[in-house]
Specification:
By secondary structure, the chain is mainly α. It has one domain. It has two helices and no strands.
Length: 81
């Protein structure tokens, strides 16, 4: 009976550890969503600029590059936190 109580207590500690870890990630999920939206908007604008002004491809490429930097930042946030 004592072993069952020990096992149950260990499982409860593990469950609390997982819950606390998930609650910390809740803050970063909002940041990641915003960064993803910014990335999508920049990618769309960059492609639109690239094809709208054939003589100024550089502007579209710069906007797309900025979007890629935002996406890389989101990627690191996903794995760091």
């Amino acid at each position: 009976m004592e072993d069952a109580n020990d096992i149950l207590a260990e499982q409860q500690r593990e469950l609390e550890r997982i819950r606390s870890k998930r609650s910390r990630h809740g803050n970063m999920d909002g940041v990641r969503k915003v960064l993803n939206i910014i990335f999508l908007v920049l990618a769309f604008l960059g492609i639109a600029l690239y094809f709208s002004y054939p003589d100024k491809h550089l502007y579209g490429m710069i906007v797309i590059a900025i979007g890629m930097i935002v996406k890389i930042a989101e990627f690191f946030i996903r794995f760091m936190f």
